[in-house]
Amino acid sequence: DVQLVESGGGLVQPGGSLTLSCAVSGFTITGYEMSWHRQAPGKERERVGYISSTSRFVGYSDSVKGRFTISRDNAKNMVYLQMNSLKPEDTAVYYCKSPAYWGQGTQVTVSS
Fold first, then answer.
1. Is residue 32 within 8 Å of 96, Cβ to Cβ?
2. DSSP letter assigned to residue 89
3. What contacts 96, CB < 8 A, 6 or more positions away?
4. Residues 39, 45: contact at Cβ < 8 Å?
């Protein structure tokens, strides 16, 4: 079975940092673009950013550019989202995505 399992979410104060991990099983991520998305309460799901199969191309939404960093380790079948300078508006469920599959999400709450 294919699984994308996010971890690393939690409660953090404004200005803090978190690193989310996405462990993929059931297929190899090599050759596939991967992306992170988030959905805040009452809002539509939005793409936070993406990373190309070789990590050569990485892109971010304007709302997180300069604060978030996406990386991947194809050998470990893992994708990461480093989040710095977190703001309350970053509060959301964060999802890892391959072209065909979604993870179950991990909650990130930014609050003092």
1. no
2. G
3. 4, 6, 20, 22, 24, 34, 35, 36, 79, 102, 103
4. yes
